TrEMBL record:
SUPFAM superfamilies: MetI-like. It holds the Pfam family BPD_transp_1. The keyword Thylakoid does not apply. Gene3D superfamilies: MetI-like. Residues 112-303 form the ABC transmembrane type-1 domain. GO terms for cellular component: plasma membrane. It is a multi-pass membrane protein. The chain crosses the membrane at residues 36-57, 114-139, 151-171, 177-196, 276-303. Keywords: Cell membrane, Membrane, Transmembrane, Transmembrane helix, Transport. It comes from Streptosporangium minutum. The lineage of its organism: Bacteria, Bacillati, Actinomycetota, Actinomycetes, Streptosporangiales. Belongs to the binding-protein-dependent transport system permease family. This is Peptide ABC transporter permease. It is found in: Cell membrane.
Amino acid sequence: MSTSLQEGAAAGAAAPPVRGRSPGRIAYERLRRDPAALFGLAIVVLFVLMALAAPLLTRLNGWEPETFDKTAIDHALGGVPKGDFGGIGAEHWLGVEPGNGRDVFSRIVYGARVSLLIAVASTAVTVLAGTAVGLVAGYFGGKVDTVLSRVMDLVMSFPSLIFMLALLSIAPDANRVLLLVLIMSMFSWPYVGRIVRGQTLSVKHREFVDAARVNGAMGPHILLKEILPNLAAPILVYTTLAIPANIGTEAALSFLGVGVRPPTPSWGQMIDNGLLWYQVVPTYFMIPGVCLFLTVLAFTLLGDALRDALDPKGPGR
C-alpha cells in the first residue's frame, strides 16, 4: 500500500501543473473559430493596407488622384468615359470619373486613407475623452458624478447631425480633416463616458480595489492601475464598433457637401458626384458605395464578434 502511495505521489509530483487559460487566450480562440470575425478582419486588413500603401498603388497605376485625363472621356457626350463600365481597362483599373477623367482607383485608395484617418482619429479622441470623464465620474461619485453626468446628458440631447452640419458650414476654410475629427468627437464622447462610468461604479467596490486602498494607494493609482485595466474589454468593443459609425458619419457629411472638400478624395463625396451619372455610368456610383459598405460591414462584424468573445457569460466558455 505504501509503495503504491509513494508511486502515486511521485507521479503527481512529476505531472505538469494544469494551467487555466487567460481571458485573452479564450477570446482569441473564440475569434479564430468565428467565420464572421475572420471575414471582417480580412476586409479590415485589406482596406488598412490599401490606405497605407496608397502612394505606392498610385505609382503602380500611373495616375495621381488629382490628375485629369481628358483623353479618357468623350467631350461630345458631356464627359462620359470612353469604353465600357466607366472606362475600366488596363490604363484605368476602375475607370475614370465622368466629366473630368480622374482615375477612380487612385481616388478610391486615397479616399480609404482619408476615411480611415478621420474615423480612427475621431474614435481615439472620443474614447480618450469619454474614458477619462467616465472614470472620474464613477470613481469620485457625489457632486462630481452629478455634474459630469448632467454634462453628458446635455451633449447627448443635441441633434448631432444638425449641429455637425451647422458647425462645419461656418468654417469653410478650416482644415477639414482636423475639423471633422473634433466635431465628430464632440458629440460622441458621452456615449463611451456613460459606459465607463457604469462599469467604474461596479468595479470600484471590488475586493482588489479595497486592498489597494488599504495598502495606501491614492486615487490616480487606483484609477489607472486597478480600475482601468478591468474596463479594457468594454472599451475595446466600443472602439471597434465606433469606427464604422464614424466612417459612415464622415461619408454622410461629405455626401452632404460639408465634409472633405475637393480635390481631396472621399468616398461620400464620390457617391454624391455619382448620383449625377448613375444612369449613364453606374459603376462610378457603385464602386465607392461597395467600398463603404464592405468597410462598415467588416468593422461591425469584427466588433460584434469581439463583444461575444469577451462576454464572460457567452456560450462555450
